[in-house]
Amino acid sequence: MAALRKPPESVRQALTGVYPTPSPSTLCAVVGGDAVLIDVEHPGRHEWLETGGAVVAVRPVVAEGLLLLATPWSITALDSSGQLWQTQRLAIDGLRMDEVSDGLLAGVADPDDMEPRDFAVDLRSGRHEGGGVVA
Questions:
Q1: I need a surface site. Which of 13, 48, 53, 79 has the fewest CB within 10 A?
Q2: Do 64 and 100 contact (CB within 8 A), yes or no?
Q3: What is the rounded distance in angstroms from the CA atom of residue 72 to the CA atom of residue 14?
Q4: What is the pLDDT of residue 3?
Q5: Which domains does the chain have, with CATH numbers?
Q6: Mean of the per-residue pLDDT values for the chain?
Q7: How far apart are the C-alpha atoms of 41 and 25, rounded to whole Å?
Q8: How does DSSP assign 52-91, residue by residue?
């Protein structure tokens, strides 16, 4: 019998929970890091989201009408009509969403690394500056 290995960090940090979205008729369920939008009026109607990895953090941004889903590498934004945008890869090994101000999300790519890198994401477009872009 093969020995069990520890799962990767991103899997151990994967969320499970139910979160309100900017749409009054849609919930976002995250199950073991996989995200799905569910129509609350017709629960059989659902849409799995491509987030680029296991969701490890969720942050509502009420002023912008967004729900942000973060993986260890990128961020996906949901608005009242569904998935709005997804950033390019921001980090190599984890990211942190710190604060929202003036339509920008400020955070840190690879916060536990010896050289963490700040980033800023435009909440309207998903374009970013900074971070650890991997080619």
A1: 48
A2: yes
A3: 10
A4: 42
A5: 9-130 (2.130.10.10)
A6: 90
A7: 7
A8: SS---EEEEEGGGTEEEEE-SS-EEEEETTEEEEE-----
